[in-house]
Design brief:
The protein has 210 residues and is mostly beta strands. It is 0% helix and 73% strand. Strands 1-2-3-4-5-6-7-8-9-10-11-12 form a 12-stranded antiparallel barrel. The N and C termini lie close together (5 Å). Keywords: Signal.
Length: 210
């Protein structure tokens, strides 16, 4: 089984979760930025930049950029600008949010415009004296140039081990082109007290890898 090694730098005004996305909106005037880089055993490379900004109390503006280069040199990726809104009021069972966005995808020289819609659920919990959270993010992206859709469901569980160390376990499911892909991504998030940045170290392990 071949895994991808991942390095993520997280910065600025964190919500109760250390992960990007989820149903928690940003406070007005605050920003969240995440940059990540990963490389597989076969030297397939990928990079992502994720930004959220609190426009208003109940409205968050976001930008999601993902690029990749295969071991054969093919470059691909997608970029989306989106708006996130709360859905209902928070309750003991969690909170909900939805987002709508538009952008473009590319593979080589071909560019495809797309629309995206997403739905998120999340809640915090305590385990003894430790705080944790659960989130589920579902999204559908309609690629008009490629004449296909991409459906994703990402699940995250996180738990604060110490004031500076957080453990995370994520499962990523993607359906596109009649095929389903799944990955398991364990990681550790380090939060040094001397900086506003957080560092996430982990790996992505495909379920169907030999």
């Amino acid at each position: 089984m071949r895994s991808a090694l991942c390095l993520t730098l997280l910065a600025c005004q964190f919500s109760p979760t250390a992960a990007q996305a989820g149903p928690w909106l940003r406070e007005e005037g605050t920003t969240f930025i995440s940059n990540s880089f990963s490389a597989t055993y076969f030297y397939d490379l990928s990079q992502s930049t994720y930004i959220e900004y609190g426009l208003r109390e109940r409205l968050t503006l976001g930008f999601d950029l993902n690029t990749a280069q295969s071991r054969f040199g093919l470059q691909s990726g997608h970029a989306t600008v989106f708006l996130r809104f709360p859905l209902g009021e928070p309750s003991e069972t969690g909170r909900w949010a939805y987002d709508i966005g538009a952008g473009a995808s590319w593979s080589g020289d071909f560019i495809s415009p797309h629309l995206r819609a997403g739905l998120s659920w999340g809640r915090g919990f305590t385990l003894g004296e430790r705080n944790g959270w659960l989130t589920v993010d579902a999204s559908a992206r309609w690629e008009f140039g490629f004449s296909q859709e991409v459906i994703k469901i990402d699940s995250t569980a996180g738990l604060d081990f110490t004031p500076v160390t957080t453990g995370m376990a994520q499962v990523f499911l993607t359906y596109t082109g009649g095929e389903t892909y799944a990955k398991f991504a364990p990681s550790i998030v380090l939060s040094p007290s001397f900086t506003k940045y957080r560092l996430q170290l982990g790996s992505e392990i495909p379920f169907d890898a030999p």
